[in-house]
Design brief:
With about 170 residues, the chain is α/β, with parallel strands linked by helices. It has one domain: Rossmann fold. Helix 1 packs across helix 7, helix 2 packs across helix 3 and helix 5 crosses helix 6. The mean pLDDT is about 95. Bound molecules: shikimate-3-phosphate.
């Protein structure tokens, strides 16, 4: 089973994904890391050199052409489900989970880790909340196409495994 975690930057896709993989004995992959390995630079560097349009094409190519193997959890990037046919493609490949969180909580998490995230570089807390609110409005249409929607705020690997009907020993 492949499980794709989707949601806004800061919603915990990578950290929760890693914990869930450990708990249910799955492999874990981070799409941003696969992209960085492919182009041999950070995503921030790629954005600066080639721009967002080029990044979205690259993101789609890496998402849809990587070998995931069986029993893998994939943490996607915040924009991944919102471009091309990516969310439909993920829905066809396995289970998709939207980690939902409010803009203010996302901003609290992101304010300390915005340096590696090209879309939110240089924002103060208020600018960040406003940016997230606007962006979330557009993106929720895609995020909500995921098969499962859970709150990212207090989510644990144990709870998520339960929602997905996967037992830790399986
Ligand atoms: C992006 C989110 C990032 C990364 C890129 C663009 C976005 O991933 O893919 O900076 O458009 O929301 P994370 O959600 O893992 O930060």
């Amino acid at each position: 089973m492949k499980i794709f975690l989707v949601g806004f930057m800061g919603s915990g896709k990578s950290s929760l994904g890693r914990k869930l993989a450990h708990y249910i004995n799955y492999h874990f992959l981070d799409l941003d890391k696969l992209i960085e390995a492919k182009v041999q630079m950070t995503i921030a560097e790629y954005f600066a050199l080639y721009g967002e349009g080029s990044f979205r094409q690259l993101e789609k190519d890496v998402l849809q052409s990587s070998e995931y193997g069986v029993n893998t959890i994939i943490a996607t990037g915040g924009g991944s489900p919102c471009y091309f046919d990516n969310i439909n493609w993920m829905n066809q490949q396995g289970k998709t989970v939207y980690l939902s969180m409010k803009a203010a909580s996302l901003a609290d998490r992101l304010i300390n880790s915005k340096r590696e995230r090209p879309l939110i570089q240089g924002f103060n807390h208020e600018e960040l909340v406003n940016y997230i609110k606007t962006k979330l409005e557009g993106r929720e249409v895609y995020y909500r196409q995921a098969q499962f929607m859970v709150s990212g705020t207090d989510m644990t690997a144990e709870k998520l495994a339960g929602y997905l009907g996967i037992s830790p020993v399986g």
